[in-house]
Amino acid sequence: MEKGKFSSVATVPGNSKWEKCISREMEIYQRSDDIRTEFYRDYNRILHSTAYRRLKHKTQVFFATRNDHICTRIEHVNLVAD
Q1: Beta partners for 71?
Q2: For the segment 30-76, what is each residue's pLDDT rounded down to a tens digit?
Q3: Is the pTM of this model over 0.70?
Q4: Would the CA dihedral through 33, 39, 40, 44 be positive or negative?
Q5: Which residues pair with 72 in a beta bridge?
Q6: DSSP state of 59
Q7: Residue 8 domain-assigned (yes or no)
Q8: Is residue 9 part of a domain?
Q9: Is 48 a domain residue?
Q10: Phi then psi for 72, rounded to 5 degrees?
Q11: Is residue 14 classed as helix, strand or coil in its secondary structure?
């Protein structure tokens, strides 16, 4: 770990707070017969979260006078993620 100005509060392996930062308070609900991978379970949790669904009501603002296509933030996030 590099010793710098913020090394005592950095969330990096080796810091005394590291284990607490990467642990969960409660186990995440999992079904024993679920055919999805952990990635797809997380993906579905994100898609159905309240914070992600709020993006559909926000306009992604940009200045392009020749192109009047305005999209929502949720569209923007999906397009950028690809």
Answers
A1: 60
A2: 788 888 888 888 888 888 899 888 888 777 766 666 666 677 787 77
A3: no
A4: positive
A5: 59
A6: E
A7: no
A8: no
A9: yes
A10: -85, 170
A11: coil
